[in-house]
Amino acid sequence: MRITRRSLLRGEASGGGVHISSLVVHCRPEKVTTLIEQISDLDHAQVPEHSPEGKLVVLLETASQDAIMQCISAIEELAGVINAALVYHQIDQEMGITS
After folding, report:
1. Element holding 33 (H helix, E strand)
2. With a cut of 50, which residues of the chain have pLDDT below it?
3. How many Å apart are CA 47 and CA 49, to the nearest integer?
4. The domain spanning residue 13 has which CATH number?
5. 16: domain range?
6. How far apart are CA 75 and CA 70, in angstroms?
7. Strands (E), the chain
8. How many angstroms separate the first and last alpha carbons of the chain?
9. How many domains does the chain have?
10. Which of 24, 54, 83, 91 has the fewest CB atoms within 10 Å around its CB?
11. 17 near 61, Cβ under 8 Å?
């Protein structure tokens, strides 16, 4: 089954394995350093790239689409975040997440 952004956001997507997702987060430029630290403190999140203008690439490796949505919501609530957009999602059936 092909997972679409709409089915993911509606919670209709299913599947086990590892959910690998990427987001583009737009934030206030003066908050970039602080937000990188705060996002990196979230479970299964990392910020491998960013620009001084306030754009961050966020990678997530989660166990479910619910965890993706929780991470997006947590990021959107951080002070200085303007927008967080899901740009990629894949379920890798052969991988598993270890805590």
Report:
1. helix 32-40
2. 1, 96, 98-99
3. 6
4. 3.30.70.920
5. 5-92
6. 9
7. 18-27, 45-51, 55-62, 81-92
8. 27
9. 1
10. 83
11. no
The token pair that represents 69 in the structure block: 């949505």
| pLDDT at res. 98 | 47
Q: Element (H or E) spanning 47, and its range?
A: strand 45-51
Tell me, what's the pLDDT at 54? Answer: 97
Tokens describing residue 4: 């679409």
Cα–Cα distance, 96 to 99 (Å, whole number): 10
What the block records as the tokens of 75 is 């990021």
Hey, how many other C-beta atoms are within 10 angstroms of the C-beta on 10?
A: 10
Please give the helix or strand (H or E) that residue 10 lies within, else none.
Answer: helix 5-10
Do 61 and 20 form a contact (C-beta atoms < 8 A)?
A: yes
Closest to 66 in 3D by CA, of 38, 82, 95, 89: 89
